[in-house]
Design brief:
The structure holds 3 protein chains of 3 kinds. Chain A is an all-alpha fold. Chain A contains 14 helices and no strands. The chains are: A mainly alpha, B mainly alpha, C alpha+beta.
Chain lengths: ~280, ~300, ~375
């Protein structure tokens, strides 16, 4: 309470905070509340009808299901990649380390058309997979590939610093007490990495759920089969069905909020169990 | 969200390889490296190579012809314009927010920090929709604006707004932890020595956050130039008018003009590579500064 | 310039950092603010500087109420615990900073600044390092640069927050002596905060001992060491042996034993705490002595300038209480103590404190 009245030594607090709040409100808070207000004005029945048609429900299942799967795959391979980058030396390690961030830097539309070119029936990999009966492009499998691409750095970059900060002494102690390498990994290395791993999972999942650019090219966008929720919002907008689009957007926003607070909690947990690691 | 996990000036050491207790058998090591590299090659390297291979499939002549096309050129210009407006605005915001949050204590600070992260977890499509609901023909301010002859949706201002939204947290997210870690003793020392608030910020704070600031701007810039979903919703896809480079890629691709689409995409991919190079350099610089700071 | 703080109070949430503190710092003195961590000493220093504002109370600089003055206007030099050197500036630029940020009208010319910085660097004997960056300096060197930087603006007062806290033991001792010499040369009113009693006693003209947001005692080092005002000051300023006892006429009854007291202000039957420093205790091997507290020798350490004996009590109500005695090597040799031997402890001087009461001093 004192902080509001006490004279401060460092200047600029009212200006900085005031500007922050106004800018945040104008750019983020007011636009987002527009979605909820618009959704609220249309009445419960039409709202419920808009968010519960079979086509919309199928899109939730697809979006959230494939996003979960992609995040889970990224947890496994992201951990391996982070482990290899931190623990081993091999030629090209620095380049691999730098390129892990590619999905952050590469525009999603570019990733989308590149992945499609690779996995289409006549594509680089598609032409070999097609005869085996595996269709990737224009199926949910293609969506999975795109979501793995965009989610990978989240896991690697949250786990990597924690692995780097692990004390070798802990593993040496475990070994001196008779633990084998696997027991040491499972009981000594993994527990402190777990919060970061879960944070990475949640970040990758949150990003995947909202992803649009990299998915639409490779998805095929067949209603009930490979149509993701963000695309449905665009489809409704193009049909000038604003209430429908808004209702679905409200559902997505609620999951965004839940994920945001979940990630915040996870990060607080990670910082507690691993202080200084992410500073 | 990328920025949440990006500020780790990573240090590599061989300490894990020297002790028998922290080393795996050679075959395990080999297998893990092979697995990691295979995954890396399949999911990261291959798409990158594909962009350039597809762009040049029909030769350099076609490639440069595609880039010289007026619509492509205007898309490049528009992308640069939008970025040149959005990034400085978010830069100023990021510095202001970090100054308030990192240097002062106030109630609701945690909530404010969380809300700044919000655009990272909102789907770009939903972000675009927000602005359609505010400024579109059926939106809150749409009719009033139309009466006054102002259109925002399907024009450049809408592209700028959507881009600012999706790149909103980048600079702030970089600076807040950095400035928190640096504390405020140096600023206090400057003030005790008689420096004004502005001089304190300019001569003491800014040099200390320089690398974090540049890092945030690089990430913000990359996302601003590459944003697709949010601008797609508000753009209207008017060729030569409201088509940014990523949107132009989509149009060309949907017209089965693959060579031109990949040519445009290759520009964006080059930009991404440049971003990664700059980012690595800045990380290296920032690490120097951070190590120096830790010794103090 | 003199400093006077009047009824200063400060809370952080529910934590009382300063509880109605009134103190005087006369012109030209070097005063040590001594106390355990969390006692409020740093907060008081920051309030005097103007870096923190008090919830209530006033700060007077040279008799003038400066409570409302901004830190910039107070003309204080402040040396931070971790020095707060500007890490991106050279040593020279750090020291010159205060001169360069002066408003255009008051700013010295560039060559004047160069000259002044050079003088200051000579004063702290670091002119050779003018072009180094803070990271390239040792802790002691950084400390001296921080001091030179604070002195550059010719402050009216010098405030130092744990000036030697982050240094290793040997450098600490050197810098302590150096700071004292520097102060004797400059005679600028200075306050420094420390939790190290040896440091405070050795360097200061006067020491203010603080505990839990209050000033327990202020006085010269000899005064606070020889005549501690409270049990806290007594135990904070050195090793101490504690006897719980009851006053019986001219004696203090400790369990089954008693020691002699001279005139004292306690009534017979009063519960008291007796404080005795290790060097004020003597050991007698003759158990038939009536006076003295019986104890058992546990360990004899005959190292250094004096010999130390560790003992435990054997009285039935105080078994296991630990005592420490410091003796000369000659006395030690004369006693010929064995581990396990029963002896009596005779205090040369006891300070009696009633719980929550001023001390009564006497000699046995």
């Amino acid at each position: 309470m004192g902080v509001w009245t006490a004279r401060r030594v460092l200047p600029g607090f009212p200006l900085a905070l005031g500007y922050t709040l106004i800018y945040l409100s104008l750019i983020v808070l007011i636009p987002i509340s527009a979605v909820f207000l618009k959704a609220a004005t249309q009445g419960w029945e039409s709202f419920w009808a808009a968010i519960s048609t079979p086509r919309v429900v199928a899109s939730y299942q697809l979006t959230y299901g494939v996003s979960l799967l992609a995040a889970a795959i990224n947890v496994v391979f992201g951990l391996i990649l982070a482990w290899v980058l931190v623990r081993y030396h091999f030629p090209g390690r620095r380049i691999v380390d730098a390129l892990v961030d590619l999905p952050f830097a590469l525009p999603t539309a570019v990733a989308g058309i590149a992945l499609t070119a690779i996995y289409a029936g006549n594509g680089w990999l598609g032409q070999w997979l097609q005869p085996l009966g595996i269709k990737v492009a224009f199926t949910p499998l293609g969506i999975l590939v795109a979501l793995i691409f965009i989610g990978l750095p989240f896991v690697v970059r949250t786990v990597q610093p924690v692995l780097e900060d692990l004390e070798t002494e802990l593993e040496e102690t475990a070994a001196s007490l008779g633990a084998d390498r696997w027991q040491t990994f499972y009981r000594v290395v993994l527990p402190p990495v777990l919060p970061a791993l879960l944070t990475g999972f949640a970040l990758a999942f949150a990003r995947a759920v909202g992803e649009y650019g990299s998915v639409i090219f490779i998805a095929g966008n067949v209603p009930m089969v490979s149509e993701i929720t963000p695309l449905l919002i665009i489809t409704k907008l193009e049909q000038f069905d604003y209430p429908g689009a808004t209702a679905i957007a409200a559902v997505m926003l609620v999951t965004s909020f839940i994920l945001l607070f979940l990630i915040n909690g996870l990060q607080a947990w990670a910082n507690r169990s691993h202080p200084g690691g992410t500073a | 969200m990328s920025a949440v996990v990006a500020t780790h000036w990573t240090v590599h050491s061989r300490r894990f390889e020297t002790s028998a207790a922290t080393r795996e058998p050679a075959w395990v090591r080999g297998m893990l490296i092979a697995l990691a590299l295979a995954f890396f090659a399949l999911f990261l390297l291959l798409p990158l190579v594909t962009v350039f291979a597809e762009a040049l499939r029909k030769g350099w002549g076609v490639y440069f012809a595609a880039l010289a096309e007026p619509d492509t050129r205007s898309a490049i210009f528009l992308t640069l314009l939008v970025t040149a407006i959005a990034v400085p605005l978010n830069l100023v915001f990021g510095v202001a927010a970090a100054w308030a949050i990192a240097k002062f204590d106030f109630r609701g600070k945690q909530l404010l920090t969380t809300l700044i992260d919000l655009p990272f977890s909102v789907s770009p499509v939903v972000a675009g929709l927000c602005f359609v609901l505010l400024f579109g023909a059926q939106g809150w301010f749409g009719p009033w604006l139309a009466d006054h002859g102002v259109r925002i949706i399907f024009t450049v201002p809408a592209l700028v707004l959507a881009t600012i939204f999706v790149t909103f947290p980048f600079v702030a997210r970089e600076l807040i932890p950095l400035m928190e870690a640096q504390g405020q003793e140096e600023e206090e020392a400057a003030i005790v020595l008689g420096a004004s608030g502005w001089k304190t910020f300019w001569y003491v704070t800014l040099p200390n956050i320089k690398w974090g600031l540049i890092y945030g701007v690089i990430l913000c810039n990359a996302r601003a130039m590459g944003e697709f979903g949010a601008v797609s919703v508000v753009s209207g896809h008017i060729r030569g008018r409201t088509n940014t480079l990523p949107l132009h890629v989509e149009i060309l691709y949907n017209e089965y003009n693959f060579a031109a689409a990949f040519a445009a995409a290759s520009l964006l991919a080059l930009l991404a590579l440049l971003t990664l190079v700059l980012k690595s350099l800045v990380e290296w610089q920032g690490r120097q500064q951070m190590n120096a700071g830790q010794q103090l | 310039m003199s400093i006077h703080v009047q009824n200063i109070a400060k809370r952080f949430g529910h934590f009382v950092a300063l509880d109605n503190v009134t103190l005087d710092f006369p012109t030209g003195e070097l005063v040590g603010l001594l106390g355990p961590s969390g006692c409020g000493k740093t907060t008081l220093l920051r309030i005097i500087a103007g870096l923190e504002s008090a919830d209530s109370g006033q700060v007077f600089l040279e008799g003038e109420d400066a409570s409302a003055a901004h830190v910039r206007e107070r003309q204080v030099g402040f040396v931070f615990q971790h020095y707060a050197l500007f890490r991106h500036m050279t040593v020279f630029d750090n020291v010159a900073f205060g001169l360069r940020v002066k408003p255009r009208g008051q700013r010295p010319a560039a060559d004047k600044i160069r000259q002044r910085v050079s003088e200051l660097l000579d004063l702290v004997q670091l002119n050779a390092l003018a072009n180094r960056y803070p990271t390239q300096l040792s802790g002691g060197q950084r400390q001296r640069i921080a001091l030179a930087r604070a002195l550059a603006v010719e402050p009216r007062v010098l405030l130092l927050d744990e000036p030697f806290g982050a240094l290793d033991a040997k450098v600490r001792k050197e810098l302590r002596r150096w700071l004292r010499t520097l102060h004797d040369a400059l005679h600028i009113t200075s306050i420094f905060v420390t939790h190290d009693q040896e440091e405070a006693l050795e360097v200061s003209d006067r020491v203010a001992v603080m505990n839990q947001g209050r000033v327990e005692q202020i006085g010269t080092p000899a005064q606070v060491y020889e005549h501690p005002a409270t049990p806290f000051v007594y135990s904070f300023l050195g090793a101490v042996n504690l006897f719980h006892g009851r006053v019986q006429g001219p004696h203090l009854q400790v369990g089954a034993d008693q020691v002699r007291l001279d005139h004292h202000g306690f009534e017979t039957g009063a519960e008291t705490l007796g404080f005795v420093r290790p060097h004020e205790l003597d050991i007698v091997t003759d158990l038939s002595e009536r006076s003295g507290i019986e104890a058992r020798v546990e360990r004899v350490l005959a190292l250094g300038a004096t010999a130390r004996v560790e003992l435990t009590s054997v009285g039935h109500d105080q078994t296991g209480r630990f005592f420490e005695v410091e003796l000369s090597h000659e006395r030690m040799a004369a006693l010929r103590l064995d581990t396990g031997q029963r002896v009596r402890l005779q205090p040369a001087r006891i300070r009696l404190f009633a719980p929550e009461a001023p001390p009564v001093e006497l000699t046995a």
